[in-house]
Design brief:
- The chain is α/β, with parallel strands linked by helices and 582 residues long.
- The protein contains 22 helices and 20 strands.
- Strands 1-5-4-2-3 form a five-stranded parallel beta sheet, sandwiched between helices.
- Helix 11 (206-215) packs across helix 12 (240-248).
- The chain is extended.
- The termini are far apart.
Amino acid sequence: MLITSNEATDRVTTAHRAKLAYIYVRQSTAGQVRQHQESTELQYHLVDRAVALGWPRERVAVIDDDLGKSGTSSTERYGFQRLIGEIGLGKAGLVLSLDASRLARNNRDWHQLLELCSVFGVLIADGEHDRLLLGLSGIMSEAELHQLRIRLHQGERQKAARGELRMPLPGGLARARSGEIVLHPDEQVQSRLEFVFRKFTELQSARAVMLELHRHDLMLPVRPLRGPAPHEVEWVPATSTGVLQILHNPAYAGAYVYGRRQSDPLRRRAGQVHPSTKQVPVDRWPVCLRDAHPGYISWEEFMANQARLRNNAARHKREGSGVARKGQALLQGIAICGRCARQMGLHYSGPKGTYPVYKCEGDYNINGTPRCQEVRALSVDAEIEKVLLESLSKDQIVVAVEAVSELESQARLLDNQWKLKCERARYEVERSRRQYDEVEPENRLVARSLERAWENKLRLQEAVEEEYRAWQREQTGPLTNSERAEVIKLAKDFHRVWQLANSTERKRIVRLVIKDVALEKMNDSEWGLSANHVANGMRVRAPGSKARAVILHLYSNKSTGEKDQAARDVWDVRSRDSGESE
């Protein structure tokens, strides 16, 4: 039941006054609480109206738990939930609010309150409306909020389309005084991000990059969005999630992007105020302005990284081969059934599980029909290995030269990371010293704390420099002429490189040449294959021995960048071989 000021004395009975009167006070945001204090005071003065209606002041309860909370939902409005509970327990005789929008701004909560008050005979008063108009006021409050959202979103979208909407920047970028986005001025931040992108190009796996960072005790720069701007860059230990966030961020490719994620109401969890979000594909981003500001990589490299990451994550799907993993089978993840075009799985048979078998179990897993086919991996891999070594022999000189340059480049890259790390430690020591010098000598309460901080920084600097010296002792130093000749000789003898490589490195080399291989079992002693190359999409079918010419032709179309990757694999094998020989 709802009352107005003119009907108050007629509607309020002794039964109502025997219960408590509740005053509900709410402001939508913390800013309104600070700046619109008159509205807050006006809501608190409703206590006087309850007293005028006949309630003793000690029998009037004020619920102000929801100050600074929006009325769009009751999930986190514990004051509103408390009010609903008190009404349901029969403790409330009167509910007072300034207007309908204070109680709720969505129809579900508003009508739930009306129904409960009707069932338990509780009066609702706001001093302006009767029941019909008060119900319409609640509906209009929600509609008004919806219209405000639409206008705000349209304005935000238009501003983003011009590239003027300020978006949070990742750790590797900063905003200049003029408002332009520039690379972070810290040289160590720039160098560390360049290291991440370069290592991903080499290792082709975000987790492998994370392990490489941990191996050299290198942290990642991040900008946590906590508190008021500006947000300073912090150094945190490398994680797979941190590496993926860097690789997925288009800002590092110099692109201004709006709408990378959108809300999905179907993914809302129980008790969650806002729906979860989902990633939007690159081709569906509402705003994507390329070359909007300086970046660490090109847009083409960014898109290639996204394709590689999708491929790594989709190892169980037909369109994804996944990351090269441990195991004997060379075609793990890239073997395709020549009969049904599904991706073939891998199974190890034998007494000790040492014989790999490529199996197509698509129909068997779906409806229990017989398996499509299975092919013994050893004979297939032997043919692939033979053809691969013959095809790579044409580019042995190129691979040898690239291997030498890659050795020197990797050494310089890591040495630069250590130098920057030592420089950062020296800066922190000098900064602590200046802080200690600025304090008054008599103020020992502060001086002692600053002295301890200075000593901690000195110990940290000493530890970092000692680690750097230990790392330098493990390195072989710049390549001498004899070592260069050794590397070139090793690269020319690619058969030896192949024998020294482990199973994961062999698979990576195979994937540089072949996108996938379709297998079809003719009979118990014969099988056929066809290879598909990444660059030109060419697909050729050849049974038995003719497959050798197929792969050789496909490799002749390899780009220079992919040959460079082959050189990196040669370098990896040479480095491990050198370590074992020592």
